[in-house]
Amino acid sequence: MFIVFVMLLLMMGLNARLSEFFRLYDQKNQMQERIDNLQATSVALDTQIAYADSDKAVEEWVRTYERAVLPGDIAIIPHPDQEITPELHYINPPGADAKENWRAWWELFFE
Question: H-helix or E-strand containing 41?
Answer without folding.
Answer: helix 2-52
